[in-house]
Amino acid sequence: MDTRPVNIAELRRMRAAGEKIACLTCYDASFALIEDRAGVDIVLIGDSLGMVIHGSRTTTAVTVDDIVYHSKCVAPHLQRAFLMADLPFLSYATLERALDASQRVMQEGGAKMVKLEGGREQAAIVEYLAVRGVPVCAHLGLQPQFVHKMGTFKVQGRDDAAAETMLHDARVLADAGADLLLLECIPAALGQRIAAASPVPVIGIGAGREVDGQILVLHDILHISPMVTLGRTPRFVKNYMAGAADIESAIRAYVQEVKSGAYPAPEHCFDVTPPSVAARQPAQPDPQRQ
C-alpha cells in the first residue's frame, strides 16, 4: 500500500485513474490506527457520532465541541488517511459561524476538510470558506441534519424534478469551490449522472456503484450500531464482521471491496433490481425499495 499521505490532489488523481476511494467514519484513537493501517483513504469525523456514540435518535444534538474533541482523538494517529470532519447542525447557518466552526475543527481538531449539508443555498458559504483556504465537501441527497424538516429518513431524488434539482445543485456547489461531493440515499442512476457531470470526486453512501468512492459508518459495517442491532439496517449497509477474523480484517475487506468494485452490490443500491429478484421476476420492479 502507498504510504504517502492522501490529500486533495491525490483524491483527484485517484478519480482520474479510476481508482475507487474508500472512506469510513471514525471517532477515537484505537479505530483511527486500525483504519489507517487497513488502507482507508478518507476518515470522517461524522456527526453520526450523536447516534452511534452518544445514543441520540438524530445527529442534531452534536456540537462543534463534540466534533473538535473526536477529531483531536483521531488526527494524531493517521499517517496516510485524509481527515474530514462534519460541521454540525446550525454551525454554518451564517458565513461567520461557518468560518468559526471550520477554524475550530481544523486548527483545534486537526481536520483537513469540513463537510456541510445542503444544496445550492449553501453555495455562498462554500465559496466563502473555499477562498479562505478551507477545503469543503458538500453533502447532497438525504441530509440527516434536516430530519426534523423532512420528517423521516428516506431516499431522495426519485422523481424527475428532484433529480434535476440535485444535478443542478451539485454543479453549483462544485463551481462555488467544493472539493468533494457526497451523495446519500439516492437512486443509482442519479448517482451515476452526478458523478459523470461533476468536476470533483463524488463519494456515495447508498448512491450506487458508479460514483468515485464509498463511505459507510464504522459501527454499521461492524454490525454494532443501534440501527443494525435493532433490526433496522439501511439497505446500503453490509456486515463486514460476518466471517471476519477480527475488526481489522473486516475493515480491510471493506476497503478491498470498495477498491475492486464488489461493494456496493446491486442489493445495496436503490432502484436497482438484485439479481435474485430479477431471476424470479424479470419484468417487475424491485419490491425491496426503501
UniProtKB/TrEMBL annotation:
Protein species of origin: Fontimonas thermophila
Annotated protein name in UniProt: 3-methyl-2-oxobutanoate hydroxymethyltransferase
E.C. no: 2.1.2.11
Molecular function via GO: 3-methyl-2-oxobutanoate hydroxymethyltransferase activity; magnesium ion binding; methyltransferase activity
Family: Belongs to the PanB family.
Cofactor note as given: Binds 1 Mg(2+) ion per subunit.
Co-factor(s): Mg(2+)
Primary localisation category: cytoplasm
